[in-house]
Amino acid sequence: MSETTTRTAAALVLEDGRVFRGEAFGATGATFGEVVFCTAMTGYQETLTDPSYHRQIVVATAPQIGNTGWNDEDDESARVWVSGYVVRDPARIPSNWRATRSLDDELVAQGVVGISGVDTRSLTRHLRERGAMRAGVFSGDALVTPEAMVARVLESPQMLGAELASEVSTKQTYVVPADGERRFRVAALDLGIKSNTPRMLAARGIETHVLPATSSLDDLLAVEADGVFLSNGPGDPATTDHAVALTRGVLERRIPLFGICFGNQILGRALGLGTYKLRYGHRGINIPVIDVATRAVAITAQNHGFALEGEPGKDFDSPFGRATVSHYCPNDGCVEGVRALEVPAFSVQYHPEAAAGPHDAANLFDQFVTLMEGK
Amino acid sequence: MPKRDDIKHVLVIGSGPIVIGQACEFDYSGTQACRVLREEGLRVSLVNSNPATIMTDPEFADATYIEPITPDFVEKVIAAERPDAILATLGGQTALNTAVALHERGVLQKYGVELIGADIDAIQRGEDRQKFKDIVADIGGETPRSRVCHSMDEIRETVAELGLPVVIRPSFTMGGLGSGMAYTHEQLERLASTGLAESPVTEVLIEESVLGWKEYELELMRDKRDNVVVICSIENIDPMGVHTGDSVTVAPAMTLTDREYQHMRDVGIDVLRAVGVDTGGCNIQFAIHPQTGRMVVIEMNPRVSRSSALASKATGFPIAKIAAKLAIGYTLDEIRNDITGETPASFEPTLDYVVVKVPRFAFEKFPGADPTLTTTMKSVGEAMSIGRNFVEALGKALRSMETKAGGFWTTADPAVVTLESTLEALRFGHDGRLYTLERALRMGATVQQAHDASGIDPWFIDQIASLVQLRGEIENAPVLDEPLLRRAKRSGLSDRQVAALRPELAGEDGVRSLRHRLGVRPVYKTVDTCAAEFAAKTPYHYSAYELDPEAETEITPQRERPKVLILGSGPNRIGQGIEFDYSCVHAAMALRAAGYETVMVNCNPETVSTDYDTSDRLYFEPLTFEDVLEVVHAEQTSGTVAGVIVQLGGQTPLGLARRLAEVGVPIVGTPPEAIHLAEDRGAFGEVLTGAGLPAPKYGTATSFVGAKRIADEIGYPVLVRPSYVLGGRGMEIVYDEATLAGYIERATEVSPEHPVLVDRFLDDAIEIDVDALCDGTEVYLGGVMEHIEEAGIHSGDSSCALPPITLGRTDLEAVRRSTEAIAFGIGVRGLLNVQYALKDDVLYVLEANPRASRTVPFVSKATAAPLAKAAARIMLGATIADLRGEGLLPATGDGAELPAGAPVAVKEAVLPFHRFRTPEGQGVDSLLGPEMKSTGEVMGIDASFGKAFAKSQTASYGSLPTSGRVFVSVANRDKRAMVFPVKRLADLGFEVLATSGTAEVLRRNGIPCTVVRKHFEGDDNIVDLIRDGGVEMVINTPYGNHGPRVDGYEIRTAAVSRDIPCVTTIQGAAAAVHGIEALIRDDIGVQPLQALQEALRADWAARS
User: B703 is in which domain, residue-wise?
Assistant: First the structure.
């Protein structure tokens, strides 16, 4: 949109002291978060509105961003959640028949501070070697000396140990009706749920009751659901004692349970597995996952900085009987799914609801239906 | 699921000669396949008639058959080799069609051979348009509304329903041959009838027009466990209506949201599964309505394609290599991604850069051809570039073209154009459409106006508008400071472009000095399939400019081995094709083996040279002075550059030699001054005079009067051409003064700066082509080739035989003495090509080129001596004696002294005439002359000339006839020479047809013949007869190039459109007779190159 050539300087400052210079993009000011890179080439609107990116500064490795503008249909939640956005070449105009405004306009409107013109590849290589870390984006008056900016970054909170689900969760329960006749009712614990998840459930005749992250087991049971769903969400899974306790309650009652992403880590913890922080995480929509049982490969959308401990294909004992590591990522052997063998519960580390990303894993929702049918 | 153990021996079918729509991308894919299959321990047999391919090098297969890719010959290969399986999905449409034909003839069943990759049903489901449409409908997708038709009546009925315009697509043709868009009923009649004729099954699809819709392609791969991945999305900047091969394309897709992209991916995967390509790659095209988003599937190729080569280079994911592994049973997750070395191939590449491909056209070679771009592919090559954003990649791609314009603003704007006329021009696809778009924007067109006119997505238009804006900033800035220069470079502008805007900087060199002074230099990034998520093991680099002066460059230091840079040949074009890539690849192989670190620089995505496996390092960069110089700098910074090789990539790198040497770049091999000696007429004349070698008389003229005086002095016919010549461009043979006047009139650029050369033309001379090596003390004659057509036909277009068929020992001695004198006289270190004309026992020197020639691969294969490898070694200091000692060259003798039992190899050119039409829809003339027009070549090799020639004709045009009718019409000067070959044809049982004049001569010589009417003599004339299929072969020699030749033109175009042999020289007719005799005897067999070369080496050894 900007026909003018006024350029406002900006800087991305990492906690290790590295500074990447660029130009202000979106809102001007200062913002802080954990800087992570996402390798998706499409779907920035979905990415930016994904609550799992709360308190993170996202680096787009794809250089041309904003080409399709912003529309009223592709948001994955009610707002942009990223704390900052780092791109190389933002579009000057949006071009898409569904676009109603530009990405730049939307970021300004939502007060999201971004930076463009950055050598995002150098930055990505740096993060790959050094790991995700705290950072700040500074522009306008906030752009000061490197030392001062690094000092402010070091004051910002760490991701390790951060409990963030409650910050992104709905405050009140709401219901998403089934498309057509209702076959099942599901209680979904909102730890940062994306809009497409209830849509995928609804398409399978499921009425979804989306509950706040702070809901008690009684709140959950009061829904009288056929199944329980644990959503994705931001933060360190080690801080989720409440959700883990809730999950154990569900498992004890043998209510079918399906978790994704953060939900996978919670089910894993409920089954007794530990979690750890990955160096730079999995964020992209091209990530292979192998189903141990069938050896089939799914190309999946992922967004996780933490992972479950475990060995692919290995069964393990849990408080709820035998369980198995059902899926893994062949890139690095990371655990991508667990399944309880004696209670009806399974989860995956990736996003079967995609948005953004490929639909290869959509059938996991069908598996959830099967699990509920077998009740 | 590991490798299948029931397949031990695979026959790979190649794609044959380079033609429009099927180029060296299939050498790239086939070479990868052969390499992979052998690494897996399988026996590999190969059939491919194209000698200029790496895949037909004897070390790439166990048995290499350089034989015609026809069902008959492939059956002979199957009978000889008895393979377990055939892999036909890597050899383009040629291989696929041959596989279908073998199936239909029961050959596969007879020999128990399995088709791997895609089976017959899948091929037919993918290629049969109606079946394909049904499949798309079954999976819930949409295709344009349409109907398959088999007759003109059906076609008219369908158009009545769909309304005009409609698209006409013949079934089972490649590169969109015969297809087109009809806006009027007249166009419909013409295109549809051609389409029916072009289709081997007389079938065309008449389709709703999706003209102007957004166009996309997906490259997918599937393994036998049904895992599917999308390797790359490609967006065409030119919307629907222009063949994707002729479109400027971008990867990844730029203007799709995730929702739309994933819908496309879902449909693509469903189509692939439903068609049932078991394993391997496929390509699917889509169109999206720009206002509604309605998406339709256009077509799929159930095989590796040109786009998959592009996708492989664009992503670093080697589709053909993986396809070959999948075909023998591996699954994607079992195959390692070479680039990361750790992660598996079961993933989807993600790009942190933008790739742009621009097609290269050759309309100037085909006067009269309609340059409007349509759904029939017309481009002859392409260049790809990689940048960190779209405009950077676009700028690099445009300057990779090696056309007059090297990006916006590098040539003068056309005079007298209005905004209206510029916008009007944008409505139709044409070569340089983006230049037109830029001018329209600069003249004040809005993005919307430009979009309305062109259908190009506004995002792309705005990107070009950003360059127009930047141009204004550069022009108006008081000084060109570092930040602005950096932005200019980051937007892909070359020094030359910046220089055009800032005249005070004293040209490109001035801009470069300023840029270096300001520290504005490119960094080099890496193509790694994963946007830097994992470390890359392969040094596959491209340049980029970042705003940050401290930006990171990814070139790793390497100081142990000396580096050699090999400059490739850029986009394929007529006159500079795959043969040069072959030589570059050979240099890389030879020098790597000799302990050098090899560094390839090239921008042609179709080639083997740009495979990251070929050299130690690959720079995917334009071959301009600026870009090459920066690569040299980067490599000098990372280690020691022993030298840069410029003589293997054709004219492109050779043209850079002088400037590179001037700035201190070490050029190895023949020094630039020596190159100049050969290229400068005067200097070369002195070399010849000094050695006592005759050359045809010549003179230089700047006007008609001057040209006439020279012609009168040296005598007609004369060969006239512009003084600066590439590939025989603008050359003509002129037989009289009137034609000479016409030539000068047409050659508008004649001036003191641009004189015309007038050479004596040696009528009826034998032309001889020699490829030789020289190390400074010894000359090795690689091969002496005798042209079958007389001098005057460009050597690239004429067929030739090796060893020479009619040259005597004294002739060969003269050739040797002359070649030695020239090689030493010029100071050649490496390869030299000399063209001679032998007339009345005098050997005239026509020209000498101190570089690899087009015939190097052909000669290397025919004589079992790898000339390009030897040349590369010589350039780095080895002597011919060393190489003889190593066994790279024969211990004694050379290619001019082949053993008596050596096989005869015939090279034949393949011409693209049937691709082109005049704007009125007529065919273009197929006449050959001094200007090269062929796109590729084939080789026929056998024990005798007749058999070898027959094979070469079968491989290039389909078989020579063995019975039927031959039409003969020759120029007066050829009437005497025609008698013997035509008599022989009559004796062999052919019915001879002739026009009255020719018939009279034939009858007087006792040859029975039937008189037919000339074209202008009314109905039932010869042209009608040819068009109706009543003639099996045409012998038609023309008189002059622009004389009274209308009848000849009609006859030749009719022959081309019927795909029957059309011989335009008497020498060619004699060769055809030899070939026909061999065919009639029916004793033509097949033999692998390995056996032929082994026998040759044994003979050689026995003699020494």
Answer: 698-758
Query: What architecture is the A9-155 domain classified under in CATH?
Result: 3-Layer(bba) Sandwich (3.50)
DSSP B597-663: EEEEEE--TTSSTTSTTTSSEEEE---SHHHHHHHHHHHHHHS-EEEEE-SSSTHHHHTTHHHHHHT
Does the structure's ipTM exceed the value 0.90?
yes
CA-to-CA distance for B539 and B525, rounded, in angstroms? 9
Tell me if residue A204 falls in helix, strand or coil.
coil
Q: Is residue B914 very low, low, confident or very high in pLDDT (cuts 50, 70, 90)?
A: confident
CA distance B1061 to chain A (A): 51
B908: left (phi over 0), alpha (psi -120 to 50) or beta: beta
A89 vs B: CB within 8 A: yes
How many domains does chain B divide into? Answer: 5
Average pLDDT, chain A: 96
pLDDT beyond 90 at B412: yes
Active-site residue, A351 included: yes
Average pLDDT over residues B399-404: 93
Could you confirm whether domain A165-373 is CATH 3.40.50.880? yes
- pLDDT tens digits along B334-386: 999 999 999 999 999 999 999 999 999 998 888 778 899 988 899 999 999 99
Q: Rounded CA gap, B820 and B825, in Å? A: 8
Instruction: Return the DSSP state at A294.
Output: T
Give the integer Cα–Cα distance in Å for B396 and B400: 6
Q: What is the 3-state secondary structure (H, E, C) of B86-152?
A: EECCCCHHHHHHHHHHHHHCCHHHHHCCEEECCCHHHHHHHHCHHHHHHHHHHCCCCCCCEEEECCH
Q: What is the mean pLDDT of residues B696-705?
A: 86
Q: Look at A296 and B226 and tell me if their CB atoms are within 8 Å.
A: yes
Question: Phi, psi (5° rounding) for residue B24?
Answer: -75, 0
Instruction: Write down the residue that tokens 């009610």 correspond to.
Output: A78
Contact assessment for residue B422 and residue B445, using Cβ atoms and an 8 Å cutoff: yes
CB contact at 8 A, B787 and B868? no
How many of the other CB atoms lie within 10 Å of CB of B71? 18
pLDDT digits (tens, 9 = 90+) for B624-640: 999 999 999 999 999 99
A342 catalytic per annotation: no
Q: Looking at this protein, which amino acid is placed at residue A233?
A: G
Please answer yes or no on whether B343 and A331 come within 8 Å at the CB atom.
yes
